[in-house]
Structures are given as C-alpha cells and as structure tokens.
Amino acid sequence: VVDRRAIQLPARAARPARQAHLELRFGAIELARPQSKFLRHLPKSLPLAVVDVCEINAGPGAEPLHWRLITSHEIATVDDAWRIVEWYKQRWIIEQFFRVLKTQGLKLEDSQIGTADRLLKLVAIAAKAAVITIQLLQARDGGQQPIRVAFNDNEINALAALNRQLEARSKRLKNPHPPDSLTWQPGSSAALAVG
Prior knowledge:
Number of domains: 2
Strand order of the largest sheet: 1-2-3-4
Distance between the termini: 57 Å
C-alpha cells in the first residue's frame, strides 16, 4: 500500500452516494506482443502503468470498490496515480453523455441523415442538448450550478416569461428555486408538464 485517501462516490441507480476510503498501489508493467507471426512488425512489448485501488471498510451492505486501471500515462508519483483514479471516476458522466446522445435520449443512431456535413451539424446540436440534459439532471440531484452554464440570456428571458405565465395560473405552480440557479429551469419545465 502506497497511499490511502477518501473519495466521494456519487449516487448511482442501485447505490447511494458515499465516501469511500481507498488504499492505492501502482507500478509499471510491460505487455508482451502476441506471438502471432502476423504481428512481428509490432514492438516486442508495450510499457504501461497499473493503478490498483481497493476500498477498505465499505460498510454493511456495500460492495467494496476495487478498480484495476491500466494506462499508457506515465505514473511517477502518488499524485500521478490519484489523477488516474480521478479521471476514471469521470467515466460515469462520459457514459451518461453517450447514453443520452445515442440511445436513451436523443437516439442519434436512429438518424437517417445521408451526408456527412449534415450529420456533423446534427451531432453538434445533439451534443449540446445532451450536455444540457445532463446538467439539468445533476441540478435536480442537488448540483449547485448557475443557470448561465446551460442557457444564454435570451433563453433565460424566455424561461422567465414562461415561468411568470405559469405562476399566474396557480400558486401550486410557483417555482421554489432561485432564478439564478440551474434548478430553477427544471422547476419551470415541471410546471409546464403539470399545467
């Protein structure tokens, strides 16, 4: 064991958020080239680094975390190894982005656009929509981002007008969130869905 540290694990579908106490080990390895005669043009080996983190004292009912991470990044210090762990922690948000973009949200893979130029434009628009969707989900789950990370002034003004219109209909539709927070927008959307 080279180091110990506590990290915050965000909530997942089947797991509540929790603090995980981890033990860290790391080292260098060499991955040998396969013995196939068709691969002799490749180098005999590939230098890699391994970062191994194990959760200690996971608590009752919690499956202990154990990550073995293999990377081509050089790891010379404990801080280098923890940086790899932090990068790996971000994989969930990246997976969520592609899930929203491709399958569960915008269904980009179902697009029938025929030219690369048009498809590129669609991907750019869909990527922005996927990022905003994820930001709104994070805000709903307790994130504290300002509304300006997802919306420009014109969009905020349109949301404010919509919010005023909805709140005029009923006190039940009053948006409880501060108007400068990203949580304020989902309140407007929820009111729209109800109204």
